[in-house]
Specification:
This protein is of the alpha/beta class. It has two domains: 6-152, Carbamoyl-phosphate synthase small subunit, N-terminal domain (Glucose Oxidase, domain 1), CATH 3.50.30; 157-365, Rossmann fold (3-Layer(aba) Sandwich). The chain has helices at 40-44, 99-106, 116-126, 140-149, 156-160, 184-192, 206-210, 230-239, 250-258, 346-365, and strands at 6-10, 15-22, 27-34, 52-56, 60-61, 80-82, 85-86, 109-112, 129-135, 166-168, 174-179, 196-201, 216-219, 245-248, 263-279, 285-296, 306-312, 318-323, 328-331. The strands form three sheets. Strands 10-12-11-13-14-19-18-17-15-16 form a ten-stranded mixed sheet, sandwiched between helices. Strands 1-2-8-6-4-3-9 form a seven-stranded mixed beta barrel. A two-stranded parallel sheet has the order 5-7.
């Protein structure tokens, strides 16, 4: 039915041949896999995937199309998409466009028809790897040499963070949201609870944050290596004793670094919507949505004022911490879901309770 006309070339020389969809352009990025059965629109628009080529392990992608409501950012920044079978005739009452059409508009190339199971097994065995999506007439050896000579971007958070502060008005607690690559779902959860939100860039100083007189601080998800933003770590370090903080994903890693813990790169990361996480404080298990390539070193927490609160039941990595002295806590997964289960949505209510306690103490003190 389709004639192979596109290839995915990995940095080790492996070549997967398939057929093209989306934009007709050549891209290079880190090849990762996502195990979600649904949620491809939210995934392709998640800023935490900035610079990456996403492989979907579910064999049929695009079957319910694309709609105007399910974007997690206005400007998706993935490099490319890899699928087994692409659906060109979606069936859903909300569908406005096909996946092929929207990727063409966003100038993002895709490749379909390859053995995504073999690709996923390779990544699981050897770790995430650079890859290039290119037309079939390109010499794979030249593409491999190009990858060897071209480093991946290290300013990924700067690429996706807001460039200037802006308000999202509400009548409740004042929350400064530090945008490290924010998913819209986080903002939706705060505004649904009436919060008066001020979104600020990742490079904001502690003084600029405190000038907003916040009742709480939200640190969002984001792409790349958490150690790449030392100025943000210093800002968080200054704010932890002063204001309640809730960190999600990248925000969790930065809180841990600010408290003196360490992070490391996972072999192939956690990306999907069915990851079981145990809450060590309650012994309850939540099924969570996850997207990260780095983790907090559990052993390094012993030298800090943080305590481990959540662990992954898949590989026993750190999934949450809280501060022993201050109203600061964080999780590695996504309680706002989008896509994924809403088991962990209660964490936003915990943040609200911490802000209420903080405001009450301030009133008593004054």
């Amino acid at each position: 039915m389709y004639k192979f006309n596109r290839q995915l070339v990995l940095a080790d020389g492996t070549v997967f041949k398939g057929y093209a969809f989306g934009a007709n352009t050549q891209v290079m990025g880190e090849v990762v896999f996502n195990t979600g059965i649904t949620g491809y629109q939210e995934t392709l628009s998640d800023p935490s995937y900035n610079g990456q080529i996403i492989t979907f392990t579910y064999p049929l992608i695009g079957n319910y199309g694309i709609n105007r409501d399910d974007y997690e950012t206005i400007t998706p920044s993935i490099k490319g998409m890899v699928v087994r079978e692409l659906c060109q005739q979606p069936s859903n009452f909300r569908s406005d466009k096909t996946l092929d059409q929207i990727l063409s508009e966003l100038n993002i190339p895709g490749i379909a028809g390859i053995d995504t199971r073999a690709l996923t097994r390779k990544i699981r065995s050897f770790g995430t790897i650079k890859g290039v999506i290119a037309n079939l007439d390109q010499d794979p050896a030249e593409l491999v040499a190009q990858m060897q000579n071209t480093p991946l971007a290290e300013d990924q958070i700067a690429q996706v963070s807001t460039k200037s502060a802006y308000p999202v008005a509400g009548r409740g607690f004042r929350v400064v949201l530090i945008d490290l690559g924010m998913k819209s779902g986080i903002l939706r959860e705060l505004t649904a609870r009436g919060c008066d939100v001020v979104v600020m860039p990742f490079s904001v100083s502690a003084e600029e944050v405190l000038r907003q007189n916040p009742d709480g601080i939200m640190l969002t998800n984001g792409p790349g290596d958490p150690t790449s933003v030392p100025q943000t770590i210093e800002t968080i370090k200054a704010l932890i004793p002063l204001v309640p903080i809730f960190g999600i994903c990248m925000g969790h890693q930065l809180i841990s670094l600010a408290a003196g813990a360490k992070t490391y790169k996972l072999k192939f990361g956690h990306r999907g919507a069915n990851h079981p996480v145990k809450n060590l404080l309650t012994n309850k298990v939540s099924i969570t949505s996850q997207n990260h390539g780095y983790a907090v070193d559990i052993d390094s927490l012993s030298n800090t004022d943080l305590e481990l609160t959540h662990i992954s039941l898949n590989d026993h990595t750190c999934e949450g911490v809280r501060h022993k002295k201050y109203l600061t806590f964080s999780v590695q997964y996504h309680p706002e879901a989008a896509p994924g289960p809403h088991d962990a949505n209660y964490l936003f209510d915990q943040f609200m309770q911490n802000m209420a306690e903080f405001v009450t103490k301030n009133k008593q003190h004054n």
